[in-house]
Amino acid sequence: MKNILLIGLLLTTTVKADILSVHCPLGCPVNPGSNDLIFAHHYALSNNSDTKFADWVAYEVDVINFGDSPGRKWKTDPLLEENETLEAADYKKANSSSLKADRGHQAPLASFAGSRYWPELNRLSNITPQNKNLNQGPWKRLEDAVRAATFYRHSLFVITGPVYEGKILQLPKADEPHRVPSGYYKIIYDIKGRAAIFFMQQTSKKKDDFCSKQKTLNFIQAKLTYSLPYLEFNNAILKRLKC
Questions:
Q1: Domains (ranges, CATH) in the chain?
Q2: What b/e string do you get for 142-174 counting C-beta neighbours within 10 Å, with b at 16 or more?
Q3: Is 233 in contact with 197 (CB distance < 8 Å)?
Q4: Rounded average pLDDT over 35-43
Q5: In the chain, pLDDT over 90 holds for what percent of residues?
Q6: How, if at all, do strands 101-105 and 36-39 pair?
Q7: Which of 67, 110, 209, 227 is most buried, with most CB under 10 Å away?
Q8: Where are the alpha helices (DSSP H) in 79-188?
Q9: For this structure, is 105 an active site residue?
């Protein structure tokens, strides 16, 4: 009888497993139970079918993947169902609307332009509507700084994702329920776990200094419904980013 009860417990108990990946070698964020976890060649992401965007994306920035920009050819993610992600037509007139939204990469195309797998970066599961002043301003300069801080055998790792606060915004021509982020976080760290952490609102100005957007891990964690891995702030990463 005891053996039967033990077997029953084993069958009914849910065990939360760690996510182990080269894309987040010191631990990935938790994947919410209803999300789809996707491992592409250069990134891992947790797709939220309610918001239609990735809750988080994790990737390594390594000089071996740098190259000239190959262009943008937007594609839906073949690993997701149609109702779990947006399609290219949903972004129509997004830039000319009150959102002034670009198609913003979470894992940046420029960091993988030299890889033969670069088309995966243009899958819409890796894209969110990002205000053009943010996307072309401090967010881009932070991504550029990460690449500039990376050199042979000294890569950096990134965990990034959207934050949802306040009014629920919508793309003007999207034909399915979704939720536009109010801001974004980016955690940049090395293999020793030394980290720098940033948070930027959609309302950020184009000329804003990304170095002024530093936050703590606790600040970011309080805005999320899933857990981040523990990474400790260290000035060494800020110095590499020229902050």
A1: 19-240 (3.40.570.10)
A2: bbebbbebbeeeebbbbbbbbbbeeeebebeeb
A3: yes
A4: 97
A5: 85
A6: unpaired
A7: 110
A8: 132-136, 138-148
A9: yes
From the list 15, 16, 77, the residue with the least C-alpha distance to 45 is 77
**Amino acid code (one letter) for 223:** K
List, in sequence order, every beta strand (DSSP E) within the chain: 36-39, 43-48, 53-61, 101-105, 127-131, 156-163, 183-189, 194-201, 232-233
pTM: 0.92
Which residues make beta-bridge pairs with 185?
161, 199
Q: In the structure encoding, which two tokens stand for residue 123, read together?
A: 């899958």
Amino acid present at 107: A
Q: Which two tokens stand for residue 218?
A: 């606790």
Written as six digits, the tokens of 157 are 């790792």
Q: Which of 41, 105, 154, 178 is catalytic?
A: 105
